[in-house]
Design brief:
Helices cover 12% and strands 29% of the residues. The protein contains two helices and eleven strands; from the N terminus they run αβββββββββββα. Strand 1 and strand 2 form a beta hairpin. The longest helix is centred in the N-terminal third of the chain and has 19 residues. Strands 3, 4, 5, 6, 7, 8, 9, 10 and 11 form a nine-stranded antiparallel beta sheet that branches. It has a two-stranded antiparallel sheet with strand order 1-2. It is of the alpha+beta class. It starts with a helix and ends in a 7-residue tail after the last helix. The protein is globular and about 50 Å long.
Length: 195
Amino acid sequence: MTRLGQAILGLILLLAIGFATMLSFGHNAPRTTKPPEPANIPIAPAAGARLAIPVAGVAADQLADTWGQIRDGGARAHQAIDIIAAGGTPVLAAAPGRVEKLFQSAAGGTTLYVRSPNRRLSYYYAHLAGYAPGIREGQGVRTGTLLGFVGDTGNAGAGNTHLHFAVSRMAPHERWWQGAPVNPYPLLAGKRRVE
């Protein structure tokens, strides 16, 4: 099988998994077994690495830089990138790290924060339709780990399915909601590398 064939097959499998798990979003049954930890989580992205695009099937040339757009009638500037995709599309880890927080918020809806292994960066995924099965706080993830699914929760607006993806530069003592926002667009579009 060619690489293109393998890539297409992989995408089809991810979409099938996403569709199959959509039926269980509203039910969080207690788990009796602990999901396995990914082995050999790198300490940090390789020097000069780029972030992976965190929505399955989206290419760099499909991204729009929504950083700095005025929102809420001028009350705030958008400090993230919105990646438009169909509801239920798999959301994947853009970089390795640990799930620091699963959080429900009025603005972000169903959200997830991943902290880089060196604790210098935080990756924020918002408006999720739901989490991937087994995702929990403290779990190690690799680039490409299934985290959840694109949705329209929070203030996204019904039917406005997209992933709100943000990056923050963190001091070691800062908590998941803190940090200095960094424009993720150049990191995802290949115009800038992770420092």
